[in-house]
Write a structure and sequence with these properties.
This protein is α+β, with helices and mostly antiparallel strands and 496 residues long. It has 13 helices and six strands. It starts with a helix and ends with a helix.
Length: 496
C-alpha cells in the first residue's frame, strides 16, 4: 500500500508544481496589465521593477494555491482514470478514499501553509508592496518632448519642439519660454537645434542649444522711464541651460503611514483594530444622537440607553402627558404667534434632517472601514479552507470525467474557479454593504461549494456516470414521448 501511496503522490506533485507556477505567472501578467499605466515612462530601474513583481507575486499566492490544487487534482485523477489505473485499483479492493488518503494529507498541509502564509508573511509583503506602489505612482514620468506640443515638465520652463530626430535625438526648431521669475513671457529663446539630457542622479536637466536668439524685456527702475519698454536681443552659437528639477529621482515613502491598514495586519492585530474602531463608532453614534435637537426628556432617555458602562444608569420611563391639551392652547393663540411657532418647528425639523443626513454619511463610511477589517480577518480563513474544498471538488471530478492532460481539466478548472470567484465576490459585496451578516457573506462561497464537493465525492465513490454522454442519452430517450414520430396504424390502413 505504501508503494501505491507514493505512486499517487508522485503523480500529483508534478502537475501541482507545474500548475502552481503557471497560475502564478498568469495572475502576475494580469497584475502587469492592470498597473502598466503606472509603470511605463517612469524611468524605473530593473531593481525596482523586480522588487515590485516579487512582492506582487506574494500577494497573488492566496489565489494560486486553491486554483493549482483544483487543476492538479483533476489532472491526476483524470489521468489515472483515463489509463484505467483507477479501475485496476478498485478491482483490487482498494476504495477511492484510500487512494485519495495521501493526497488529503497533502491538501491539509497546503491549506495550513496557506493560512500561515496569509497570517504571518502576507501582511509584511503587502506593506512593502503598497509602500513601493504608492512611491512609484508619485514618481514623475520621464521627460518626453513631443513634436509641436508645449511641454511644462521642466520646472520654470515651457518648451516646444518643431521636429525630433529619433535616431540621433537631436531637437530642431526649439521655442523656450522662461518662467523662472514667476513672470509672463518676458524671456523667449529660439534655437535652430539642441540636445536635452538628464543627469544620472536625475536632479538636473541639461539643455544645450545651437544657433539661436534670446529675446528679453529689461526691467524699468526709474519713474521717468515707466512708459518705455527696454528690449534686449542676444545671439548665440551655443548655449547651455542647467535646470534643477524635483521628484525625478525615485524616493520611497515611509512604511509607517500604511502600517495600520487592514491588509497589513494579522488576525490578532485585526481583532484589536476592530475593537478600537467599534468603540469609536459607537462613541460617535452616541455623540450624534445627543446632538439631535429634540425633547429634553427624550434626549436623557437616549443618553441613558447609549451609555455602555454606567453603574449609575437610571431607568427612565417616558409617560405621555395627558393633562395638557395642545390643540386647545394652539387654537387660542393669535395668527402671528401660530406662524412663529410653525416656523420655529419647521426650522428645527430641517436642521435635524440635515444633521441626520450628515451623520448618516459619516457613520456609513466608518462602518465600511470596520467591515474591511472584519472581511480581511475572515478572508484569511476562507482562502485556506478553499484549498481543501477545491481538492474534494477536483479529485472526484477527475475520477468521474477520466480525462488527463491540460485539455478538459483546464477548461473545467477555469469554469469552477470563475463560479467560485463570482459567488465569493457576491457574498463579500453583500457583507461589505451590510446587506448580509459578515459571517454569511464571507463564508457564502464555502457554504455553496462544500456540498458540491461532498456530492461529487459520493458520486465518485459509487462510480456514478454523471459525466457520461450515454447516461444523458438514455434519460433523453426515456423523456421522449412515445409514438411521436411513428405513423398512426389507423391512418395507414385507411390510406391503403
Amino acid at each position: 500500500m505504501k508503494r501505491l501511496h507514493w505512486y499517487v503522490i508522485k503523480s500529483f506533485l508534478g502537475p501541482f508544481f507545474m500548475t502552481f507556477f503557471i497560475v502564478l505567472f498568469v495572475l502576475l501578467m494580469q497584475f502587469l496589465w492592470r498597473y502598466v499605466g503606472d509603470l511605463v515612462g517612469k524611468g524605473l530601474s530593473m531593481k525596482i521593477l523586480a522588487e515590485m513583481l516579487f512582492y506582487a507575486s506574494f500577494g497573488l499566492l492566496p489565489y494560486a494555491f486553491p486554483l493549482s490544487i483544483l487543476l492538479a487534482s483533476i489532472m491526476t485523477f483524470g489521468s489515472l482514470g483515463e489509463n484505467y489505473e483507477l479501475v485496476a485499483m478498485k478491482s483490487a479492493g482498494i476504495s477511492l478514499y484510500r487512494i485519495m488518503k495521501p493526497l488529503i494529507v497533502i491538501a491539509i498541509l497546503v491549506s495550513a501553509i496557506a493560512f500561515y502564509f496569509a497570517n504571518n508573511i502576507l501582511p509584511h509583503t503587502n506593506l512593502k508592496f503598497t509602500t513601493l506602489m504608492v512611491s512609484v505612482k508619485q514618481q514623475r514620468p520621464e521627460l518626453v518632448l513631443q513634436e509641436g506640443v508645449f511641454t511644462n515638465d521642466i520646472d520654470g520652463y515651457s518648451i516646444k519642439v518643431g521636429r525630433k530626430d529619433k535616431k540621433t535625438n537631436v531637437l530642431y526648431d526649439l521655442l523656450i519660454y522662461d518662467h523662472t521669475r514667476n513672470k509672463t513671457n518676458e524671456s523667449v529663446t529660439v534655437a535652430d537645434s539642441g540636445f536635452l539630457k538628464i543627469t544620472e542622479d536625475k536632479k538636473y536637466i541639461v539643455l544645450t542649444l545651437f544657433n539661436g536668439v534670446n529675446y528679453s524685456e529689461e526691467p524699468v527702475n526709474t519713474r521717468d522711464n515707466m512708459n518705455s519698454k527696454p528690449f534686449r536681443r542676444d545671439k548665440f552659437k551655443e548655449q547651455t541651460i542647467r535646470v534643477k528639477v524635483n521628484n525625478f529621482e525615485f524616493s520611497r515613502r515611509d512604511e509607517g503611514i500604511y502600517r495600520n491598514m487592514y491588509r497589513m495586519l494579522n488576525i490578532k492585530q485585526l481583532t484589536l483594530m476592530e475593537d478600537t474602531l467599534n468603540d469609536k463608532y459607537y462613541e460617535q453614534l452616541r455623540t450624534y444622537l445627543l446632538q439631535i435637537d429634540i425633547n429634553p426628556t427624550v434626549s436623557r432617555k437616549m443618553a441613558d440607553l447609549t451609555a455602555k458602562h454606567d453603574s449609575l444608569r437610571q431607568k427612565l420611563e417616558i409617560l405621555p402627558d395627558s393633562t395638557f391639551n395642545f390643540d386647545n392652547y394652539f387654537n387660542g393663540l393669535d395668527k402671528w404667534v401660530k406662524a412663529e411657532i410653525a416656523m420655529a418647528a419647521l426650522d428645527r425639523a430641517r436642521n435635524n434632517i440635515q444633521n441626520l443626513n450628515l451623520y448618516q454619511g459619516q457613520l456609513t463610511e466608518r462602518k465600511r472601514t470596520i467591515n474591511k477589517y472584519e472581511m480581511e480577518r475572515h478572508r484569511k480563513f476562507t482562502l485556506s479552507i478553499a484549498v481543501l474544498i477545491f481538492f474534494f471538488v477536483g479529485a472526484p471530478l477527475g475520477a468521474i470525467i477520466r480525462k488527463g492532460g491540460l485539455g478538459m481539466p483546464v477548461v473545467v478548472s477555469i469554469l469552477l474557479f470563475i463560479a467560485y470567484y463570482i459567488v465569493s465576490m457576491t457574498g463579500e459585496k453583500s457583507a461589505r454593504e451590510d446587506v448580509w451578516q459578515m459571517f454569511t457573506g464571507m463564508w457564502f462561497s464555502t457554504l455553496v461549494f462544500l456540498p458540491v464537493g461532498i456530492w461529487l465525492s459520493y458520486k465518485a465513490v459509487t462510480d456514478s456516470a454523471i459525466m457520461s454522454t450515454e447516461t444523458y442519452v438514455k434519460i433523453f430517450h426515456k423523456l421522449k414521448p412515445r409514438n411521436l414520430f411513428k405513423p398512426n396504424e389507423k391512418n395507414s390502413e385507411l390510406n391503403n
